[in-house]
Amino acid sequence: MLYLTSDNFPVFVPFGVIGFYRYLWYCIRLTASWTYRPVPLPENPTYIASEDVTIIVPTIDAGEEFKEAANSWLVGKPKEIIIVTEEKMQGPLQELANAVDPERIRVLTVPFANKRLQMSHGIKNTTTDIIVFADDDAIWPPTMLPYILACFEDQKVGGVGTSQRVQPCGDKMTVWEVLAAFRLTIRNIEISSSTHIDGGLPCLSGRTAAYRTIILKDPDFLHGFTHDYWLGKYHLNSGDDKFLTRWMVTHGWNTYVQCCKEAELLSTMKPNWRFLKQVLRWTRNTWRSDLRSLFMERHIWTSHPYVAYTMVDKLFNPFTLLVGPCLVAYLMYKSTIPIDQGGYHLPWWNILVSYMVWLMATRTAKLLPHLWNRPQDIVYVPAFILFGYYFAIMKVYALLTLHETGWGTRAGVGDPSAATAAMDNAGPSEKVPEVTVVKPYTDLPSPRPEQQTYPQPPVEMRVGFAT
Considering only CA atoms, which of 93, 300, 136, 124 is closest in space to residue 226? Predict the structure, then answer.
């Protein structure tokens, strides 16, 4: 390909600059990830899981995999696990809860399947200082809760995330699960580097994330969380983790992510083509949330400028990625024209082979952290390259269809507006008992004056709320 520049060198200068720029930033990201360090366990922890942690699990179709996940959560000895489901699923989920631990697992219901509604109902029924949201298939290491709680020793931290790894559904990973594993490896690098560089995160993944209960008990948060509309018209159900992350930023709270084996969860992914539907939903959520962060709320620019840069980069990434094959196609066309008529001297197959070798080398280099642990997955690198171009086209399609707010992979998830209206019209449920919590809250950061929506908690406060 370098030899080809002798034909028309100026054509290649912009593309060389773009390539150098992108791989320079990737090297910076990789270096930051290598130098990142998780928060160590304190000698005298302020928060104890058995007293201060409630795990909330919004679900509608938990199966046998829930038992393995729940047993892994219970190893950390949380005070309580709250499962929130729709009314028709109460019986089956109560049976699952009874089979695992009826003393520490409670099943609550909402009228309609709606994740945000289920999460808010769980929040209202929580009496501990820390809430951990978890997917019903998230399997934790025994050290997960202590490492999450270690971050809350810093009283300015409002939310904590974790790293992730794929748990195969069968004995062997399918190509779809390997693609998901590749994406998680890259994501783990991104979140650890952004945390290390400026303390920010694009998203505290909803598969497992922890928050201070006092933040989520705020009535303004609960209302905004369940009455979230895109363009004031399209009611949102998914994208809950993006909303929570933005709320931390706009209200002056810090976030952190524990990227280490001690806080790395295992989670299943769709083992078939339905994985693409998951990716489409995630992509729409990312577009909507990042556009809000960058151009509507705008706190991200001053709070976490590096994260703002990564968001802007992702806005243009699908377009810059698609430039590559378009340029190669043009060069191959020019190579079919005689040189004396303005064509290029290299044969078309030489250009194509050079491009494929370049793609294999650079994409394999990006996946080395994953391939170090699973070298057998190198055979899936070509599939990852093809998926990358498909994903770029999908991102453009997602941008043009942001009004589509359906879940995509769960037909049982109802209309969010109907679900929210049903809960708004419902009478108050049983009152949550009050508990006294004595914690060192005096150093909590004040939200920005123009956005202050809840009073600063005193050293001793009451956190019982009527639901």
Answer: 124
- Count structural domains, the chain: 2
Which residues on neighbouring strands pair with residue 164, listed in sequence order? 265
Report the SS3 class of residue 266. Answer: strand
97-101, 128-132, 141-145, 436-440: the lowest-pLDDT one: 436-440
Helix ranges (H only) for 336-444 are 348-366, 368-373, 381-400, 416-425
What are the tokens at 436?
């006294």
Cβ count near 423 (within 10 Å): 18
C-alpha 422/C-alpha 110 separation (Å) is 9
Position 89 in a domain: yes
**Cβ 236 vs Cβ 416: under 8 Å:** yes
Assess whether pLDDT exceeds 90 at residue 350: no
> In whole angstroms, what separates CA 111 from the centre of its chain?
27
Last residue of a domain, one of 400, 418, 450: 400
Average pLDDT, the chain: 86
Q: Name every residue whose Cβ is closer than 8 Å to that of residue 309 and which is 6 or more positions away in sequence.
A: none
